[in-house]
Amino acid sequence: MNVSLSIEFTEHICISCGCVFYVPDTFDTQRRRDKKSFFCYNGHSQAYVKSAEEEVREEMQRKLAERDRVIQSNAEYSTRLSRELNELKKKCKPVDEKPKPHGNTGKRKARRVSA
Ligand SMILES: [Zn+2]
Fold first, then answer.
1. How far away, in angstroms, is 23 Cα from ligand 1 center?
2. Closest CA to 25 of 40, 39, 6
3. How far, in Å, from the CA of 82 to the mean position of ligand 1?
4. For residue range 57-85, what is the model confidence (pLDDT) as tens digits?
């Protein structure tokens, strides 16, 4: 019985000691994605760093999430204020929305003059 196994490897050169080492391609793909560190044979830590574009994209995601939280919070606050305002309105007599004329309104009463 013959068993054939094929694993692809990615070559790395340690940034500290310069040794050449190999990791399976699937491992390398995961490290590129999750940015976790890995080590050369001599124990030196290696890692893929985030690109400037990835940093900007993550900052955008944080800002969008923050904006959504603020919108949600403001909506809840507005709803609560409206509810409190309605409760207060129920406790009062209806308030005339139009301001009552005060003082000289520009209108004059007509005087009847008899001859
Ligand atoms: Zn090393």
1. 14
2. 6
3. 64
4. 999 999 999 999 999 999 999 999 999 99
> Ligand 1 mean position to 80 CA, how many Å?
60
- Cα gap 61→65, rounded to integer Å: 6
Q: Which of 23, 73, 25, 26 is nearest to 46 (CA)?
A: 23
For residue 28, give both structure tokens.
Answer: 């390398």
Question: For position 103, what pLDDT does the model report?
Answer: 61
Tokens of 69: 């939280």
| CA 64 to ligand 1 centroid distance, Å | 40
| Among 61, 12, 59, residue whose Cα is nearest residue 38 | 12
Question: Ligand 1 centroid to 6 CA: how many Å?
Answer: 27
pTM: 0.47
